[in-house]
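Lab notebook: predicted structure, single chain.

Context: the supervisor wants predicted structures on file for every construct in the current expression panel, including those that have not yet been purified. This is the next one on the list. No modifications to the sequence; it matches the entry in the shared construct table.
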Amino acid sequence: MSRAQTIAKEIVEQYGRDGRLSDESLALAEFGVWNRTTPGMLLVMTGCLAALQAPELVERERESGNEVLATILKDDDPLGALALTDAGAELGWDHWVSWIWTYWQSQGMSLGALDELLEQADEVWTEVVDSGDVTRPCVRDGECGPWDVSETPVPADTERIDYGVLKIPRLEGAEPRPLYASERVVGVITDFGEHAFSLEVFRTPHGGAWDMLRSQMTQMFQDKGGSAEEAENSLGPEILAQAPGLREGQQVMRPTRVVGCDGPGWLLRGALRGPEALAAVVEPRVRHLFTQTVVDLSAAPPAATEEVTAVEIRWPTAD
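Prediction complete. Output recorded below exactly as produced.
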């Protein structure tokens, strides 16, 4: 067995002994690291493979009241279902490893059954990592957005909230809140878990606005006492920063990832803040929110200047 498989197996065994994941197991798992094969990623894939092999156990999970877990495991794309809703936070890794433990018990605690599943998970996840698909830039390439409202076909199978110039995907379980500049609402902040992702749109009279603003923002972070560097990931050129701020009166550095994309006459900019904001692979929910947003400048007043300017959004009224 590989080192990752051995640790993954030890994590399952530790859960079986204690009925919960220890802090040490959570640290060893490295959940949330998507660009290499970690014990946590093997456990994620192992749970999905177990669901394919034992659908009757998945239904038993539902009948026992574990609705969230059963829904994810029965989805055609369980990894996507786990990523694109708040189910990961609601479910918790204890529940996920509990599912693997349940499956293993159903197999008579045979070492071969778990070892084989971990081996399969390792092969599948290694293929995913080696393909580079999780880090290759995929933005406004004909298949991925963000989209301009004039472009067809804008994917219609995503439910979006209408903010006037922005149509942003609805993230199950997340509560959007307004982003203010002075007294104007210029963007939308979506909170999930310990992270927050904000989106705002700018009018751009000339192309290449993101290249220009990216260097300005990098310098701004540095001038304020933080650090920043330019990088590239699945959402294209980005800024990885430690942004200075205050928490309970103390100066702290907040991990911040800033992404941007030029469209016809506009720039969509997003900022992710939270403990894992600088992870090697962009958080799947962030990728979904960013690439499935639609920009509609026809819903904004005419431009009053040739400068790059933030566009005010329309906050939807409560039904």
